[in-house]
Amino acid sequence: MYTLTGVTKSYQKGRRTVTALKVPELVINDGDWLAVQGRTGHGKTTLLQVLGGLDQPNTGSIILDGHDLTKMRQSQLTKIRGESIGFIFQTFNLIPTLSAAENVEAALVPGPIASAQRHHLVSEALDSVGLGDRARHRPTELSGGQQQRVAIARALVKQPQVLLADEPTGNLDEHTRDEIIALLEQLWRQNQLTLVMVTHDSRIARRAQHLGAMKKGHLTVWPNTHQSPTSHQAPGGRHD
Amino acid sequence: MFFVTYLRRELLGRPRQAAVIAAGLALGIGLVVVVSALSSGVREAQGKVLGSLYGVGTDITVTTAVQPASRSGGFNQITPKPYPRHTDVLTSSTLGTLNASAVSSISTLRNVSAAVSGLVLTEITATIPADNAPPQSSFQPPVQTSVVGVDADDTGYGAFSSARLAAGRGFTAADSTANVTVLDSSYASAHRLNVGSTITVAGARLRVIGLVQQNGGSNPPQVYLPLARAQQLAKLTGKVNIVYVQAASAALVGTVTDEISKLMPSAKVTNSANLAKGVAGSLATTAKLANNLGKWLAVLTLVIAFTVASLLTLAAVTRRAREFGTLKALGWRSRRITGQLLGECLALGIAGAVLGIAAGFGGTRLVSTAAPNLSAIVQQTNIGKDAFGGDLGANGGVFSGQVGGPVTTYANPSATHTVAVPFHAPITLTAIVLAIALAIIGGLIAGSLGSWRITRLRPAAALASVE
Questions:
Q1: What are phi and psi of B452, to 5 degrees?
Q2: Same domain assignment for residues B8 and B105
Q3: Same-domain check for residues B95 and B175
Q4: Same domain for B20 and B151
Q5: What are B366-417's pLDDT values in tens digits?
Q6: How far apart, in whole angstroms, are the C-alpha atoms of residue B385 and residue A91?
Q7: What is the pTM of this model?
Q8: For residue B277, is it within any domain?
Q9: I need a labelling partner for B217 at 20 to 30 A (CA). Which of A75, B198, B375, B452 fits?
């Protein structure tokens, strides 16, 4: 799915150049679940952003299914995001003036699917996250866990190949966190997604197939040999 | 349709911001509508003034100044006799005379659609005291009556054109030298005259064949005569003292004015534009207010409204940066996002237009209700001259001289007269279309600035922003 080679991303902070990301080589196979941990400010979100084409690295290449994201124009990256990549954010990032169903539908709007068909897909997506009866509720009328379920539905409604989740349980209480992770795991398995998740929580990370540690922009990845019993060991390799 | 749903939700979901932007635009647009209505009202009022002076359909008048040596009307120095005498003269004391052929020359000009001549006269009846009578005891003020000679062949222009027949009939071509007259109905009422009555003008007995009514605020002539008969009675055969001209179109009035001025360099050629400059009174003040202060106030308010709308939209884009970043993450192109924002701004602009037009209607209703009748003080274009070439003032006496010596009599024309004009401020379709256009422009300006901001948003930076 993903092949990263010599990827770096730096920012200018006054006179200093800060290296946010430095990945000499990384391969993420189809269907892999990679959980990346690390302290705040060490480049985890930057990694997700370059994987999702939301930001461009300064050097290197990022090949996604044979397409080099670093050589694409913004419009091409937007198209790939619309078709193949789903995002889940720590703060849910739902549009506050739209209902749950309309938030999910927003992910289908750029695509070629007609309006009537969209409604059907939206209903299915909300049902799959257990919120079929909350379709008309606004985000302010939903709990944190429910909002994140809507965000998950939004990410998956277009049946992407890749799901990028940035601290998906960071704003949730413990009980809700477990629910969300269980849901994500279930959906990962069902849809054969490639899931790259950033998390602080080791208990969540342990459920993934591969673990990554981000330290000052440097990523180290290894297989999770201590995977928790509820996780499924999908085929896939890893590289440091 | 998702576009409409998102737009509606966004405007209804952030009502305060939407209300501020729409209200700001409404204020500017409402002011534009009111100023436009005031300007239309002033133009209409000025047109009424001109119409009351010269009749409907007249764009230009041609006159000439009174010359002392050629002062018309046979109103000369009168030597008192040892007995009182009565005089009744018809005189062109306020305007000089033109040859009647002038109207033919003017008619042949290319951009003239009609030219009609007339005679604006004053009848003065007075009793001249005996030379041995004490001045104070026998003084009786003269009576002045305004008389106009109209072209019986063409009463569609000039002083007769805006008259409405109240009784009897108007003039026909057969009346050109007949002893007939049409009276103003107010004058007839005051003198207990009707159709069939007779009056005496300059010694001729004339039968009243019709009564007419003019606009309430105008200062119409009291007596109308067929032009040829008026020329005979005023001893002005072959002469006229005013030509009423209609241009081929409103846009050609200036051109025709210039052409007539070249054709008749010594004549005074007056059109509605330069006549309006000579109009004083509250109408003139209102015109200045509407055209100067009102216009600039409306422009300033619009600029402020557009600026506020743009700044609020930019602020909204900044506040919604994470939302737009999320949409970009979902696969929305910048074009789609800016289209959404432009739609929101246009909707607010249209809301501002509707509110502004409503406010404009309210404002103009208030003005029309509260505004008093305006007055237009119109200067006479020519001041009469006395036997010695001096100007006849507005308060000039009829008699001068002393008992036993020569007495100079001269007419007592008013140098100015006041026309009352009811004022209202109509909202024209043009003003409404202008209001909507301005609202759309305001919305587009605000939306364009916001759109520019969106296109510069990097998705990663937008997602990292804090709402």
A1: -60, -40
A2: no
A3: yes
A4: no
A5: 877 776 666 666 654 433 333 333 333 333 333 333 333 333 334 334 455 5
A6: 93
A7: 0.66
A8: no
A9: B198
Residues B77, B111, single domain; the answer is: yes
Distance, in Å, from the CA atom of A204 to the CA atom of A169, rounded to the nearest integer, reads 9
Tell me if B333 and A75 make a contact (CB, 8 A cut-off). yes
| Residue that finishes a domain, picked among B237, B266, B295 | B266
Query: What per-residue confidence (pLDDT) applies to B290?
Result: 64
Instruction: Provide the domain limits for residue B238.
Output: 65-266
Complex prediction ipTM: 0.90
The answer to whether the CB of B251 falls within 8 A of the CB of B88 is no
Distance separating alpha carbons of residues A195 and A193, to the nearest angstrom: 6
Which of the 8 DSSP states describes residue B399?
A: E
B272 closest CA partner among B34, B52, B111, B41: B52
Nearest alpha carbon to residue B146 among B155, B156, B158, B159: B159
Interface test with B, best of A48, A79, A97, A167 (most B CBs within 10 A): A97
The number of helix segments (H) and strand segments (E) in chain B equals 14, 18
* Same domain, yes or no: B92 and B232: yes
Helix B429-455 × helix B334-370 angle, to 10°: 150
The answer to whether residue B212 is domain-embedded is: yes
Q: Which of A12, A54, A76, A156 to mutate to test binding with chain B, by most B CBs within 10 Å of its CB?
A: A54
**Chain B residues with CB inside 8 Å of A48's CB?**
none
A154 interfaces chain B, CB cutoff of 8 Å: yes
Residues B5 and B170: their CA atoms lie apart, in Å, by 68
Beta strands per DSSP E along A29-126: 33-38, 59-64, 67-68, 85-88
Would you say B409 and B141 are in contact if contact means Cβ atoms under 8 Å apart?
no
> Is the pLDDT higher at A130 or at A238?
A130
Domain count, chain B: 2
- Sketch out chain A's domains with CATH numbers: 2-223 (3.40.50.300)
Examine the fold and report which residue of B231, B266, B301 is the final residue of a domain before the chain moves on.
B266
Of A82, A93, A109, the CB nearest to B326: A93
Give the chain A residue nearest B460 (alpha carbons).
A54
The verdict on B304 and B238 lying in the same domain is no
| C-alpha to C-alpha distance for A48 and A43, rounded to whole angstroms | 9
pLDDT in tens, B68-116: 654 444 444 556 677 777 778 888 877 888 888 888 999 999 889 889 9
Helical segments of B191-267, H only: 227-233, 253-263
Chain B residues near residue A84 by CB distance under 8 angstroms:
none
Task: Tell me: do B185 and B322 sit in the same domain.
Answer: no
Note whether residue B36 is domain-resident: yes
Q: Is residue B411 part of a domain?
A: no
Residue with structure tokens 């062109």? Answer: B92
